[in-house]
Amino acid sequence: MIHLKNIEKVYRTSSIETLALTNVNLHIGAGEFVSIMGPSGCGKSTLLNMMGLLDAPSSGQVEINGQTVTQYRDQELARLRNQHIGFIFQSFHLINDLSVLDNVEIPLLYRKGDETGSSRRQLAQLALERVGLSNRMKHFPGQLSGGQKQRVAIARAIVGRPSIILADEPTGNLDSGMGNEIMGILQQLNADGATIVMVTHDETMAKKTHRLVRLFDGSMVGDSTLMYNEQ
């Protein structure tokens, strides 16, 4: 599903060189729910960006669904992201001037397919129903709580029915109660077949996943199987 081989990422400026990732080898199979942990600045988000085709490695190889994408052009990467990958962010990234329903529909607008306006609207409604927000479709982000905003963000991530969901600190801005609700939704999406990779600082949330990958100073220092906890 996701295969990273000998990944290295170096950020360079005129005066400094920063090694963000070094010799990362990671395989994530279909249907796994993997958490990534490590101290701030260790390369967690950079690693997630590699999986999401938002950033390219300085060296090494990235495979998504059996396709080696390292040499893909920007247009090819954008199409692959849109068709196969859903993103969830800590800060929600909702557009305040659009309704909840319109926010969720956005990824479908970039697809070149047979979906009509009415079919896109129906898919957005179904995604919101799936996260328990069918009664908030006409609201705007400013009228929602943090937990509701994250539910909208999840609905937007899954509206295109991606096989991979990448979540960067999805519970980071929420209290423990709301965080557990969001984790429950992610667990259900995983049970329904989605492959999920989640960056988190929260050990409690990480223990609700199948597998824990630990990073330190850009290197993988741990990769352990967990006892999946659905509570």
Automatic annotation (TrEMBL):
Classification via SMART domains: AAA
InterPro entries, alphabetized: AAA+_ATPase, ABC_transporter-like_ATP-bd, ABC_transporter-like_CS, MacB-like_ATP-bd, P-loop_NTPase
Domain ABC transporter: start-end pairs: 2-231
Entry-linked Pfam families: ABC_tran
GO cellular component: membrane protein complex
Keywords: ATP-binding, Nucleotide-binding, Translocase, Transport
UniProt keyword annotation of Repressor present: no
GO terms of molecular function: ATP binding; ATP hydrolysis activity; transmembrane transporter activity
Family: Belongs to the ABC transporter superfamily. Macrolide exporter (TC 3.A.1.122) family.
Protein name: ABC transporter related protein
